[in-house]
Amino acid sequence: MAAMAVVVGGGLGAFALTPAGAGAAVRTAPLTTAVVTKAAASSCATGKYQKQVEGYLKKLGGYGTITVDGKQSAADCAAIVKFQKRFGIKPAQGLAGPTTYDVAKRLAATKTSACKPNKTGITFCVDLTNQTTWVMKNGKVFVKPTITRTGMKGYRTPSGTFKINKRTKKEWSDPYHVWLPYWQRFIGGRGFHQTTTYIHDKWRGSHGCVNLLEQDAKQYYSIGKIGMTVKVIGRRPGT
Protein backbone atom coordinates (compact mmCIF):
# COMPACT_ATOMS: atom_id res chain seq x y z
CA MET A 1 0.00 0.00 0.00
CA ALA A 2 1.30 3.51 -0.82
CA ALA A 3 2.34 5.73 2.12
CA MET A 4 -0.06 8.56 3.02
CA ALA A 5 1.37 12.09 2.93
CA VAL A 6 0.51 14.70 5.59
CA VAL A 7 0.56 18.40 4.63
CA VAL A 8 2.47 20.61 7.05
CA GLY A 9 2.43 24.38 7.13
CA GLY A 10 0.21 26.90 5.38
CA GLY A 11 0.43 29.82 3.01
CA LEU A 12 3.18 29.74 0.45
CA GLY A 13 5.55 26.80 0.30
CA ALA A 14 3.60 24.19 2.28
CA PHE A 15 5.20 20.76 2.23
CA ALA A 16 4.13 17.16 2.76
CA LEU A 17 5.69 14.59 5.08
CA THR A 18 5.45 10.87 4.50
CA PRO A 19 5.44 8.41 7.42
CA ALA A 20 8.81 7.54 9.03
CA GLY A 21 11.01 5.54 6.72
CA ALA A 22 8.97 6.31 3.65
CA GLY A 23 11.42 8.81 2.26
CA ALA A 24 12.23 12.50 2.36
CA ALA A 25 9.70 15.28 2.71
CA VAL A 26 8.06 16.14 -0.57
CA ARG A 27 7.38 19.83 -1.24
CA THR A 28 3.96 20.54 -2.67
CA ALA A 29 2.95 23.28 -5.08
CA PRO A 30 2.78 26.73 -3.39
CA LEU A 31 -0.67 27.89 -2.25
CA THR A 32 -1.59 31.04 -4.11
CA THR A 33 -2.79 34.20 -2.39
CA ALA A 34 -6.06 33.89 -4.28
CA VAL A 35 -6.70 30.45 -2.77
CA VAL A 36 -5.94 31.70 0.76
CA THR A 37 -8.14 34.77 0.32
CA LYS A 38 -11.01 32.73 -1.07
CA ALA A 39 -10.78 30.28 1.83
CA ALA A 40 -10.80 33.09 4.39
CA ALA A 41 -13.78 34.78 2.75
CA SER A 42 -15.78 31.58 2.60
CA SER A 43 -15.57 31.21 6.38
CA CYS A 44 -17.30 34.56 6.91
CA ALA A 45 -21.01 34.69 6.12
CA THR A 46 -22.65 37.49 4.17
CA GLY A 47 -25.24 39.31 6.26
CA LYS A 48 -28.53 40.91 5.31
CA TYR A 49 -27.03 44.38 5.62
CA GLN A 50 -23.69 43.66 3.93
CA LYS A 51 -23.65 46.58 1.48
CA GLN A 52 -25.02 49.11 3.97
CA VAL A 53 -22.46 48.14 6.60
CA GLU A 54 -19.66 48.30 4.03
CA GLY A 55 -20.75 51.83 3.15
CA TYR A 56 -20.93 53.01 6.76
CA LEU A 57 -17.55 51.52 7.67
CA LYS A 58 -15.94 53.08 4.62
CA LYS A 59 -17.37 56.46 5.69
CA LEU A 60 -16.20 56.04 9.28
CA GLY A 61 -12.71 54.90 8.27
CA GLY A 62 -10.12 53.08 10.33
CA TYR A 63 -11.31 49.51 9.80
CA GLY A 64 -9.23 48.50 6.80
CA THR A 65 -9.84 48.17 3.07
CA ILE A 66 -13.53 47.81 2.27
CA THR A 67 -15.25 47.37 -1.09
CA VAL A 68 -18.84 48.62 -1.12
CA ASP A 69 -20.44 46.01 -3.35
CA GLY A 70 -22.55 43.88 -1.03
CA LYS A 71 -20.25 40.90 -1.53
CA GLN A 72 -18.32 39.53 1.42
CA SER A 73 -14.56 39.28 0.97
CA ALA A 74 -11.75 38.43 3.38
CA ALA A 75 -10.93 42.13 3.71
CA ASP A 76 -14.59 43.05 4.31
CA CYS A 77 -14.91 40.30 6.89
CA ALA A 78 -11.80 41.45 8.76
CA ALA A 79 -13.06 45.03 8.79
CA ILE A 80 -16.48 44.06 10.11
CA VAL A 81 -14.97 41.82 12.79
CA LYS A 82 -12.69 44.68 13.88
CA PHE A 83 -15.70 47.00 14.09
CA GLN A 84 -17.75 44.46 16.04
CA LYS A 85 -14.96 43.91 18.55
CA ARG A 86 -14.48 47.65 19.02
CA PHE A 87 -18.13 48.19 19.87
CA GLY A 88 -18.78 45.03 21.85
CA ILE A 89 -21.09 43.41 19.30
CA LYS A 90 -21.51 39.67 19.90
CA PRO A 91 -20.71 37.41 18.23
CA ALA A 92 -17.87 39.20 16.42
CA GLN A 93 -17.80 36.92 13.38
CA GLY A 94 -18.09 39.40 10.51
CA LEU A 95 -21.80 38.90 9.81
CA ALA A 96 -23.48 42.18 8.84
CA GLY A 97 -26.61 41.60 10.91
CA PRO A 98 -29.13 44.06 12.40
CA THR A 99 -27.04 45.05 15.44
CA THR A 100 -23.93 45.76 13.38
CA TYR A 101 -26.03 47.70 10.89
CA ASP A 102 -27.73 49.72 13.64
CA VAL A 103 -24.48 50.65 15.39
CA ALA A 104 -22.69 51.58 12.16
CA LYS A 105 -25.64 53.67 10.99
CA ARG A 106 -25.83 55.60 14.28
CA LEU A 107 -22.12 56.36 14.28
CA ALA A 108 -22.14 57.42 10.63
CA ALA A 109 -25.13 59.73 11.27
CA THR A 110 -23.49 61.49 14.23
CA LYS A 111 -22.53 65.10 13.57
CA THR A 112 -19.95 66.17 16.12
CA SER A 113 -20.45 69.87 15.35
CA ALA A 114 -24.04 69.65 16.63
CA CYS A 115 -22.71 69.52 20.18
CA LYS A 116 -21.57 73.17 20.08
CA PRO A 117 -18.74 72.59 22.56
CA ASN A 118 -16.90 75.14 24.65
CA LYS A 119 -14.22 76.97 22.67
CA THR A 120 -11.63 76.01 25.25
CA GLY A 121 -11.23 73.01 27.52
CA ILE A 122 -13.02 69.66 27.53
CA THR A 123 -16.66 69.11 26.60
CA PHE A 124 -18.30 65.68 26.87
CA CYS A 125 -21.03 65.35 24.22
CA VAL A 126 -24.01 62.99 24.22
CA ASP A 127 -26.34 62.61 21.23
CA LEU A 128 -29.55 61.08 22.53
CA THR A 129 -31.08 60.77 19.06
CA ASN A 130 -28.27 58.61 17.67
CA GLN A 131 -27.30 57.12 21.05
CA THR A 132 -23.67 58.14 20.63
CA THR A 133 -21.15 60.11 22.64
CA TRP A 134 -17.75 61.75 22.07
CA VAL A 135 -15.34 64.25 23.61
CA MET A 136 -14.28 67.67 22.30
CA LYS A 137 -11.20 69.63 23.32
CA ASN A 138 -10.78 73.31 22.47
CA GLY A 139 -13.64 73.01 19.99
CA LYS A 140 -12.23 69.99 18.11
CA VAL A 141 -12.91 66.26 18.31
CA PHE A 142 -10.65 64.77 20.97
CA VAL A 143 -12.25 61.31 21.33
CA LYS A 144 -14.19 59.99 18.34
CA PRO A 145 -17.86 59.05 18.69
CA THR A 146 -18.69 55.78 20.34
CA ILE A 147 -21.98 54.18 21.25
CA THR A 148 -23.99 54.66 24.40
CA ARG A 149 -27.34 53.65 25.85
CA THR A 150 -29.31 56.28 27.73
CA GLY A 151 -32.56 56.39 29.68
CA MET A 152 -35.45 54.23 28.51
CA LYS A 153 -39.11 55.27 28.47
CA GLY A 154 -40.09 56.63 31.88
CA TYR A 155 -36.44 57.34 32.74
CA ARG A 156 -35.50 59.71 29.93
CA THR A 157 -32.05 61.26 30.07
CA PRO A 158 -32.61 65.04 29.91
CA SER A 159 -30.97 67.24 27.32
CA GLY A 160 -29.09 70.35 28.39
CA THR A 161 -25.72 71.61 29.58
CA PHE A 162 -24.36 70.23 32.86
CA LYS A 163 -21.18 69.92 34.89
CA ILE A 164 -19.50 66.83 36.29
CA ASN A 165 -20.05 67.10 40.05
CA LYS A 166 -18.96 63.72 41.40
CA ARG A 167 -16.45 61.05 40.35
CA THR A 168 -15.72 57.65 41.84
CA LYS A 169 -14.16 54.56 40.25
CA LYS A 170 -16.92 52.43 41.73
CA GLU A 171 -20.24 53.86 42.88
CA TRP A 172 -22.96 51.84 44.59
CA SER A 173 -26.51 52.42 43.33
CA ASP A 174 -28.94 52.20 46.24
CA PRO A 175 -32.10 52.13 44.08
CA TYR A 176 -30.88 49.36 41.75
CA HIS A 177 -28.43 47.47 44.00
CA VAL A 178 -25.56 47.37 41.55
CA TRP A 179 -22.03 48.78 41.31
CA LEU A 180 -21.49 51.49 38.70
CA PRO A 181 -17.86 51.42 37.49
CA TYR A 182 -16.12 54.67 36.45
CA TRP A 183 -18.92 56.86 37.75
CA GLN A 184 -19.10 60.52 36.69
CA ARG A 185 -22.32 62.23 37.81
CA PHE A 186 -23.55 65.35 36.04
CA ILE A 187 -27.20 65.83 37.05
CA GLY A 188 -29.20 64.37 39.93
CA GLY A 189 -28.53 60.65 40.06
CA ARG A 190 -27.50 60.50 36.41
CA GLY A 191 -24.01 60.21 35.03
CA PHE A 192 -21.54 58.31 32.87
CA HIS A 193 -20.64 54.76 33.91
CA GLN A 194 -19.65 51.41 32.48
CA THR A 195 -22.68 49.40 31.43
CA THR A 196 -23.72 46.63 33.79
CA THR A 197 -25.58 44.69 31.05
CA TYR A 198 -25.12 44.00 27.31
CA ILE A 199 -25.23 47.51 25.89
CA HIS A 200 -26.91 46.41 22.66
CA ASP A 201 -30.04 45.17 24.47
CA LYS A 202 -31.70 48.44 23.50
CA TRP A 203 -35.06 47.60 25.01
CA ARG A 204 -33.49 47.58 28.47
CA GLY A 205 -32.17 51.11 28.33
CA SER A 206 -30.84 52.76 31.47
CA HIS A 207 -32.57 54.54 34.33
CA GLY A 208 -31.31 57.87 33.03
CA CYS A 209 -27.56 57.31 33.05
CA VAL A 210 -25.23 57.34 30.06
CA ASN A 211 -24.05 53.73 29.73
CA LEU A 212 -20.62 53.12 28.20
CA LEU A 213 -18.56 50.14 27.10
CA GLU A 214 -15.74 49.33 29.52
CA GLN A 215 -12.93 50.79 27.41
CA ASP A 216 -14.91 53.99 26.82
CA ALA A 217 -15.88 54.33 30.48
CA LYS A 218 -12.22 54.00 31.47
CA GLN A 219 -11.14 56.58 28.89
CA TYR A 220 -13.85 59.05 29.91
CA TYR A 221 -12.87 58.63 33.54
CA SER A 222 -9.20 59.27 32.74
CA ILE A 223 -10.14 62.53 30.99
CA GLY A 224 -12.88 63.78 33.30
CA LYS A 225 -12.55 66.21 36.18
CA ILE A 226 -15.00 67.91 38.52
CA GLY A 227 -16.49 70.95 36.82
CA MET A 228 -16.04 69.78 33.23
CA THR A 229 -18.92 70.44 30.85
CA VAL A 230 -21.36 67.79 29.63
CA LYS A 231 -23.67 68.70 26.74
CA VAL A 232 -26.62 66.42 26.03
CA ILE A 233 -28.50 67.01 22.77
CA GLY A 234 -31.50 65.48 21.01
CA ARG A 235 -33.91 62.92 22.42
CA ARG A 236 -33.82 59.17 22.47
CA PRO A 237 -36.48 57.72 20.14
CA GLY A 238 -39.42 56.31 22.04
CA THR A 239 -38.87 58.33 25.22
From TrEMBL:
Q: Which GO terms describe its biological process?
A: cell wall organization; peptidoglycan-protein cross-linking; regulation of cell shape
Domain L,D-TPase catalytic, chain residue ranges per copy: 122-233
Does the UniProt entry include the keyword rRNA-binding? no
Residue span of the signal peptide, if any?
1-24
Q: Which GO terms describe its molecular function?
A: peptidoglycan L,D-transpeptidase activity; transferase activity
What are the entry keywords? Cell shape, Cell wall biogenesis/degradation, Lipoprotein, Peptidoglycan synthesis, Signal, Transferase
Q: Which residues form the active site?
A: H193 (proton donor/acceptor), C209 (nucleophile)
Protein name stated in the entry: Lipoprotein-anchoring transpeptidase ErfK/SrfK
Species in which this protein is naturally found: Actinoplanes regularis
